[in-house]
Write a structure and sequence with these properties.
Elements lengths: L5 H12 L3 E2 L4 E3 L4 E3 L4 E8 L2 E8 L4 E7 L5 H14 L2
Antiparallel strand pairs: 1-2, 2-3, 3-4, 4-5, 5-6
Length: about 90
């Protein structure tokens, strides 16, 4: 027995996670979502005057790391620390 709307929800999720634009051999972009083409990392990033954010889901670790900053691009330095941790230590 299927749940009403479950096929529609799955199709929408699949479309959202698809790569719609490739930046290089490793990184792509979908519907507002950056991703590694091997599906090991998904992220949303952005900012505006006075704020910045970066949220990443590390698939292998099943962990999400989110950075919120109250300064323009203030998340960038901490992003390097987080990525270094997951790439080298976790």
């Amino acid at each position: 027995m299927s749940v009403p709307g479950s096929t529609w929800k799955q199709n929408l999720t699949n479309f959202f996670l698809q790569t719609h634009e490739r930046f290089d051999e490793k990184i792509g972009y979908g519907c507002g979502l950056y991703k590694r083409l091997d599906n090991s990392l998904f992220s949303i990033v952005g900012g505006d005057a006075g704020v910045g954010f970066d949220s990443r889901y590390f698939v292998h670790h099943r962990m999400t790391a989110s950075i919120l900053s109250n300064t323009t691009n203030g998340e960038e330095d901490l992003r390097e620390v987080v990525m270094d941790f997951f790439n080298n230590y976790a």
